[in-house]
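Researcher: Here's a chain I'd like modeled. Treat it as a single chain, no partners, no ligands.
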Amino acid sequence: MKKRDRLEVIYDILKLIKDNHNSIRPTPLLRYSNLSSQSFAEYIRELKDKGIVKEITDRKGRRFLTLTDNGFRYLDRYRMIIGFIEDFNL
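Model: Modeled as a single isolated chain. Structure tokens:
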């Protein structure tokens, strides 16, 4: 089994958020992302710092992660690049 590279991990995290109606709690996202809690925290911190995801809190104090416009743009461009690679069998 091939190890995921950094861009694939980011894509997987963003896709999980999007597929859950663009709102998911951190713990289920950690579970579904198949990362260690330390790696997960590093990825989320980087994605928040770069404005790709944001954290929101509801009235009950529960935290959720959502995609920003940059997050949706990343997903679109990643799929375009993968399509390009597959078109040329690279």
